[in-house]
Design a protein that fits this description.
By secondary structure, the protein is mainly β. The protein has a single domain, classed as Calcium-transporting ATPase, cytoplasmic transduction domain A (Distorted Sandwich). The protein is built from one helix and ten strands. The strands form three sheets. The chain has a six-stranded antiparallel beta sheet, with no helix packed on it. Strand 1 and strand 2 form a beta hairpin. The chain is globular. The C terminus is likely disordered.
């Protein structure tokens, strides 16, 4: 279950119901539910060992914003692609308003 900002409201959503454009609020150790782009987080890093075999955490920032579904993180991300639609991410601007 993920916490997702959708249409200005924070809702709980199972992974199969996360849609493109959702802003997902992840905590330390959470699995990324879909391919996405980093929005905000304090010292964000991902554990991409499941995808790449790399044992070191990979730092995320505006210069390296792409996240792979199935990795583990602690940050906010905007969902870019789900299911059969995931592929190489396309860069676009995202603004998080509170």
């Amino acid at each position: 279950m993920s916490q997702v900002w959708r249409n200005g409201h924070l809702v709980r959503s199972v992974q199969s119901e996360v849609v493109v454009g959702d802003i997902v609020d992840l905590s330390a150790g959470d699995a990324v539910p879909a391919d996405g782009i980093y929005v905000f987080g304090d010292d964000p890093a991902t554990n991409e060992a499941k995808m790449t075999g790399e044992s070191k955490d990979i730092e995320k920032n505006p210069r390296h914003p792409f996240l792979l579904g199935g990795t583990e993180v602690s940050l906010l991300l905007t969902v870019h692609a789900i299911g059969v639609h995931h592929s190489a991410p396309v860069c676009f601007a995202t603004w998080l308003c509170s």
